[in-house]
Amino acid sequence: MSANPSTSDHLADGEHLAVLGYEDSFNRSMSLWANFALGFTYLSPLVGVYSLFALAVSTGGPPSIFWLVIVGAGQLLVSLVFGEVVSQYPIHGGIYPWTRRLWGRRYAWMAAWIYIWAMIVTVTAVAEFGSGFLASLFDIPVTKEVTLLLSVVFLVVALGFNFSGTRTLGRVARIGLAAELIGVIGVGLYLLIFQRHQSFSVFFDTMGVQGNGPYITAFLGSALAGLFLFYGFEACGDVAEEVENPARRIPRAMILTILVGGVSSLFAFGGYVMAAPDLQSIVNGKDADPIPGILQAALGDVGAKIFLIVALTAFLSCVLSLQAAASRLLFSFARDGMVPGHKWLAKVSPRSKVPTNALIVACVIPLLICVIIYAGPPELLTQITSFAVLGIYVAFQSVVLASLRQRVKGWKPAGPFNLGKAGFTVNVIALAYGIFAMILLAWPGHTGVFLNDWIVLIGLGIVAGTGLIYLFAARPDRKSTAPEGDAIHVAELLRARR
């Protein structure tokens, strides 16, 4: 791949943005490392591994750790495709402007509609899960009322940080990055070196999890161990107009997010497996929340409390990054006149240079969902978040598909980050991987309860269906005159400025 200044690299950030039809209206105060930290804390290996460890091991046994490698490799290919796109289109909002410029307005509307709801639900879920850690730190019984109150605290505190501006967002993201690395790599290494109760051969031992059937079925069922984890790198591109030299730095930040996130996850997952005093009980599903017990046994009371503080920092940073990414997507959507209330949503604070109204929406809707969860049955959180990951993968693959379509039509990406002749092959494999991942995510369960078995597709169907109804009833695409489907033309313009 190339990062040589042979295309648009010599253009100043404002000039590059002007070629794309926009004015430079944000503070470009986010460095490469702050941008990487934003993506990494959104991906959040600590949150992902903690949330999925018991499910993965009880479904696929210790070998389920290999899904981290499989999915990490697949998402790395997707990040390379994204890197070429954002290098040509370093615009706020990520998925929405990329799909618009690669395909068209209606296509972009659906991709962004699905993605924004998936992100908002994910913000809610992370705040809800984080409330349990906060309650544990202060030894507060976890009731529905406590969960609601502490979830609101997470969302409002994150909103306050986001209101402060891009510099604060970058600082908190870097603090969250440090907390993540301590919590996953530091603790993972400690468990692997000093607290081993298993041999390394355990990762090739199914421990009878397949029962009387073939192990491949159990292994495929544990794919969530990776599929729920390796996204978030696209958030690096959501804030493109607040990054210095984004055409070069954002692709690097995306790749770093995947690579460091993958290594971190392997250390954490592997450490928990190796340090589990009674791994068989976890495999048998008798211990639904084994990590606190593992940490308590390995770190003691004081160490476990310190880990809780580190984990809370990671959760808060994750909520902060999600809010920021969602608000920039809303802003980008609104700037092109593609959403109700677009003039209000597209306003940027003259003081902090952030889209404050979009941030408010990215906080208020998750707050409302938290109230609905509080008033609903216990399984409601799982049900309403089930479609989120599939929705995110659908949105990701909409970019991969649109990119491949433009390549077939003759597009040669003109950003400074360029895969050259390998780009087409990477694009094809990334799409094939994405289709495989979406099939695994959408595959119905086998509980015999219709809603539980089909909830992922039902959730996606509701979101996509309402989006289609609004698209064809209100026709927001007719009210928008922003550029679309111009990848080949923009590439020619950028090359002409060499």
From TrEMBL:
Keywords: Membrane, Transmembrane, Transmembrane helix, Transport. GO terms for cellular component: membrane. The chain crosses the membrane at residues 32-53, 65-86, 107-126, 146-163, 175-193, 213-233, 253-275, 306-333, 354-375, 381-404, 424-443, 455-473. One of its GO terms (molecular function) is transmembrane transporter activity. It is found in: Membrane. It holds the Pfam family AA_permease_2. PANTHER family: AMINO-ACID PERMEASE BAT1, OS04G0435100 PROTEIN. This is Amino acid permease. It comes from Leifsonia tongyongensis. The lineage of its organism: Bacteria, Bacillati, Actinomycetota, Actinomycetes, Micrococcales.
